[in-house]
Predict the 3D structure of the following.
Amino acid sequence: MAPGLDPGSRAFPFTFREDKSMSDSYENDGKAHEQYITEVLAQYPEKFAKRRKKHLSVAKAVEAEPDAPVGEEGPLLTECDVKSNIKSIPGVMTIRGCAYAGSKGVVWGPVKDMVHISHGPVGCGQYSWSQRRNYYVGTTGIDAFGTMQITSDFQEKDIVFGGDKKLDKVIDEIEEMFPLNGGISVQSECPIGLIGDDIEAVSRRKGKEIGKTIVPVRCEGFRGVSQSLGHHIANDAIRDWVLDKSAEAEWEAGPYDVNIVGDYNIGGDAWASRRLLEEMGLRICGNWSGDATLAEMERAPKAKLNLIHCYRSMNYICRHMEEKYGVPWMEYNFFGPSQIAASLRKIAKHFGPEIEAKAEEVIAKYKPLVDGILEKYTPRLAGKKVMLYVGGLRPRHVMTAYEDLGMEIAGTGYEFAHNDDYQRTGHYAKPGTLIYDDVTGYELEKFVEKIRPDLVGSGIKEKYPVQKMGIPFRQMHSWDYSGPYHGYDGFAIFARDMDLAINNPVWDLFDAPWTDGGELLAAAE
Amino acid sequence: MPQSAEKILDHGPLFREPEYQEMFARKKACDGAASVDATALQSEYTKGWEYREKNFAREALVINPAKACQPLGAVFAAAGFEKTMSFVHGSQGCAAYFRSHLSRHFKEPCTAVSSSMTEDAAVFGGLNNMIDGLANCYSLYQPKMITVSTTCMAEVIGDDLFGFIGNAKAKGSVPEDFDVPFAHTPSFVGSHIDGYDNAIKGILEHFWKDNAAAAGSSDTINIVPGFDGFCVGNNRELARILGLIGVSYTFIGDAADQFDTPSDGEYRMYDGGTTIDELKAAKGAKATIALQQWNSRKTLEYAESVGQQTASFHYPLGIRATDDLLIKVSALSGKAIPEALRLERGRLVDAMADSQAHLHGKRYAIFGDPDFVQAMARFTLETGGEPVHCLSTNGGKEWAKDMQALFDSSPFGKACKAHAHKDLWHLRSLLFTEPVDFLIGNSYGKYLERDTGTPLIRLTFPIFDRHHHHRFPVIGYQGGLRVLTAILDKLFDKLDAETSIAGDTDISFDLTR
């Protein structure tokens, strides 16, 4: 905790100030954090210590020129640049996944009326089955296929002789079993690209034959260095195999049509967001890709604006739609009230005074809810230190949601961010914040052990080691089976969840009373 | 406004609020998906015999399989040995998936490193990844042993583990005498139970091949538990039973402590497990027994090839399967089965007799790994139940034959059938066309419970949506008691739910059942 910020003595403004989160003034102990970096690097063989060093850093304060113009992202607070988006070092226990996870798991999997074939051996589809919690409305197995594991279950003979014939048959059988599917995607697993299958030819031919969209996706797990290339490949597949049909899409364009892009509706996030946008007078053309249908994606270029939440996974398609269809795009952040209000205003500004007035109404309408949440939870959470390690967006996007509750971010890092993400992080991170890119199991364990934050937000693989240390934890990929965390409705759940994690009595039970010898001695006397 | 600070609604009730329901309706009106009528029609159609026939005619498409891939089994196997790090050679996403999958079931940490092969390794092979990977793993995680398995990427390009590990040692990645057993575990052959088998065999071969100990030189019995999501409860229960008999034994891999570390402020990356010394000594054992035959075929073959006696079981639980295990252990060790176990047996029989009226004639569908399905079928038959649909995606023809022999051995087996290499979408058709009272399996069965209304009893890996079941044993007589109770709890809960409407169905809402 920064000096002078004793939560017990701090007076909190329970009336929420939209312009300013409450923890604006803290600073982390950058010197100590630099020391921790030196200590973890000492454990590596020299060659790899050098490589890992480039991925670890401490956020440095940036002296803003007083009159410098403030960009869309707000003022730059720190410089957080580290090397990113390069190969993980073998043997270090990277937390990253693969391109298949980025395409099937993230971008394509949530498109609910399509059948997504995990094309290759059984495992990839099995481990990713129903684990991302992309909520949808539909009758599973009939008109929606989200929580299913559909695979071509490659056997040795498919590897030896190729899998194209099998894919052909799989598509026929999908039509037989699931005639109401809106289309099919072929999500390549590692062997596909190695054995020289031509899934594009099969997809094209079968697509014509059954009269539906079939999208081949070259997201083999060995491509690229993380999930990130899988996002990019999935975006390209949308560009090449879906948007080419947008001219025929049935959709009468309206003046306030927007797409929500990069919201996967985890625990219902996209719904909690959609409601706010509708309330301010916008019409949602499509949501990419949580709870999406293929038809909603096809008509996307007819919208007036693309609103992108997960910049990392879907900026590619936004840039494409801007270039080809002239649809502008805008980043927004629906985590926590300060960012929600800023985002609503930013979005409204694009549409003019009428929508701007409505946005103000929305902000005012939810102000009592926000005030109530802050009044209830801030005294229980203020001053608590948080470490984050998530994917490509949340390590910066959720920071202000914590700060809205008076909490402080001690360290943050991304599994698969690129350079532009770390630049954007500078608009959020406070000086002294520990920054770690593609952190290894070893590093994260040591950093957590040394900083001993009050809460760690990361994934399932990190959850139990951290909890064993007696430190509260929330999964920040799946919302730990809770959510939504987006929007005002989601913020209430977010605040409640952080409180229940940190303030549960179990953390006080770790030490057996006799282990320090005191009680035993007392009993002996 | 649905949400309030006083009463914060979770996603379930939140999205049932009118604001959300109206929004869903607006979205549905223009989402381009199938109409409500078409959906209702197709939904009904999937419940019939015609759809079932089409469903069973599938040759290529697999829908909701109940199996995973080989390296998952290898990672699980590695967790059974002291201070052992699992090294997955191939794409890194696989290691992330295995770790997540096991963590979600055990609610415990699960470690494994990857050699993080990418496109260049696909072209040139993964030798450098192996060299660097072993060096880093050794420095960072200080294991006593590193066990190597492969992902399908490494298998397709034909990486040679034996040669690569030798090369890495020559380059100084790990000391020459450091133990790096390995197994090729192609995902496109068999399933996780074969990966387990290959990994265990690889580890035994590593420690036994240049080992002078003669099989039978010690009185010890080796126990190969198999891939078991209930290893935490089961291994400890088996150790207790063997302790009661007084037999000397060595688990060939015991993940009970690794997947059940205490919360006391210290994160133990490694805990418990069979030691290297125990593994070496295990060569001299007089016998190796496998608790799950279909998980251990290659391992047993290998144990036999070094001169050990072998025996195998199908996840022994309930009365007769436990009897078989005890009799065999007694015969192998020359030790009598103690009275205490006879009393335990009697207590389980007593419990079954107390509840027999409720269990007699109940119909079950059972799915999972082949040994588990065999075990549950045998136990339900002992209670007078009928395991009508027994399905195993990774069970083969031989398994189906064994199952048929089991059905033929009991008058309650007449209407029963084993379905090898079938998936949970097949089972959906079976449940609609030939309904049963209960479904026994894992968490994936919840979609079948939702669609067909068949109550699900979760008794096998993976269980993601219920907590801590795996901490209690299901094998042996004690385990049988727990399985019995789980079935009865579900049965009575269902009976109460069906008779709980006041003034309507509650005529039969009995206090004593």
User: Anything to note?
Assistant: Residues 353-381 of chain A form the longest helix (29 residues). Confidence is low (pLDDT under 50) at residues 1-13 of chain A. Chain A touches chain B through 122 residues (CB under 8 Å). The longest strand of chain A covers residues 257-263.
